[in-house]
């Protein structure tokens, strides 16, 4: 047999083998595209489930069952299994609980930056709707009269907002997390010392956060996670922060 005939035979055999391999049905074990997570099915009874939804104010809340997520937050819900690493960083899992498939739900890969953008969008819309109208410009002053001070849009913290000296609030978050920085700014405006610990850059900070959540009987979900004198808050909510600070001031915090 000539070398040319041998080469042609090998080429035909290789083509047949490749065709046979390509006809193999997808059994769900094939790798997904780089940077994406495989779809995650779950039901009402899935154990270790953590569902983070966003209210109209842009505040996040964590539930353990799809039935507990209210109508206002069902279309965009972050999904996390507490005993799995997938979806804890970037990308994450997000599901639409209004869409049921085969009696359950399916969470899909979602860029973390897009998730944070949706939260910021709701928060900015709420602030815009809740903000009072701007005051009219001051009337022109008479010649020789001293200039008046421009009105401030930011109310000064009252003495009732003050907390005992030596109290430091710890914010577990990340550099890309806008609500984390908003929480820090909110505390700073009230004269409260705050320390930001980046869980993406520091494994020790992440382990410390998880330990505090576990001690408080809470599961890992969205950031920021805020430690106010031992009171653990998940997500940024001005109302919850004010309540926690009031507890520190009154000495009722454990």
Strand content: 15-25%
Spatial separation of the terminal alpha carbons = 88 Å
CATH class of the domain at 161-250: Alpha Beta
Over the alpha carbons, how many angstroms does the gyration radius reach?
27 Å
Number of helices: 5
Under CATH, the topology of the domain at 161-250 can be stated as Glutaredoxin
What is the approximate shape? globular
User: Overall mean pLDDT score?
Assistant: 78
- The H-and-E topology, N to C, reads as HEEEEEEHEHEHEEH
How are the strands of the biggest sheet laid out side by side?
1-6-5-4-2-3
- CATH architecture term of the domain at 161-250: 3-Layer(aba) Sandwich
**The biggest beta sheet, please?**
6 strands, antiparallel
| Percent helix range | 25-40%
Number of strands: 10
Full CATH superfamily name of the domain at 161-250:
Glutaredoxin
Question: Which structural class should the secondary elements be placed in?
Answer: alpha+beta
Sequence stretches where pLDDT stays below 50 over 5 or more residues: 16-33, 152-156
Entry summary:
The protein has 254 residues and is of the alpha+beta class. The chain contains five helices and ten strands. Among the domains are: 40-116, no CATH class; 161-250, Glutaredoxin, CATH 3.40.30.
Question: Which secondary structure elements does this structure contain, and how are they paired or packed?
Answer:
Elements: H1 3-22, E1 40-42, E2 49-54, E3 60-63, E4 77-81, E5 92-95, E6 105-110, H2 112-130, E7 168-173, H3 178-189, E8 193-198, H4 203-215, E9 225-228, E10 231-234, H5 238-250
Parallel strand pairs: 7-8
Antiparallel strand pairs: 1-6, 2-3, 2-4, 4-5, 5-6, 7-9, 9-10
């Amino acid at each position: 047999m000539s070398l040319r005939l041998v080469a042609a035979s090998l080429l035909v055999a290789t083509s047949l083998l490749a065709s046979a391999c390509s006809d193999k049905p997808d059994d769900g074990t094939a790798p997904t595209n780089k940077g994406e997570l495989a779809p995650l099915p779950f039901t009402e009874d899935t154990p270790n489930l953590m569902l983070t939804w966003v209210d109209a104010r842009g505040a996040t809340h964590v539930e353990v069952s799809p039935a507990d997520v209210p109508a206002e937050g069902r279309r965009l819900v972050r999904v996390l299994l507490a005993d799995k690493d997938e979806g804890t960083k970037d990308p994450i899992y997000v599901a639409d609980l209004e869409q049921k498939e085969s009696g359950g739900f399916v969470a899909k890969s979602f860029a973390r930056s897009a998730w944070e953008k949706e939260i910021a969008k709701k928060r900015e819309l709420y602030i815009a709707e809740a903000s009072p109208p701007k005051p009219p410009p001051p009337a022109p002053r008479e010649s020789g009269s001293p200039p008046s001070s421009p009105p401030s849009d930011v109310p000064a913290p009252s003495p009732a907002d003050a907390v005992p000296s030596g109290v430091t609030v710890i914010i577990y978050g990340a550099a890309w997390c806008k609500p984390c920085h908003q929480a820090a700014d909110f505390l700073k405006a009230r004269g409260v010392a705050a320390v930001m610990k980046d869980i993406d850059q520091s494994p020790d900070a992440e382990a410390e956060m998880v330990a505090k959540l576990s001690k408080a009987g809470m599961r890992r979900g969205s950031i920021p996670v805020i430690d106010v004198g031992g009171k653990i808050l998940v997500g940024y909510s001005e109302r919850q922060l004010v309540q926690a600070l009031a507890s520190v001031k009154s000495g009722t915090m454990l």
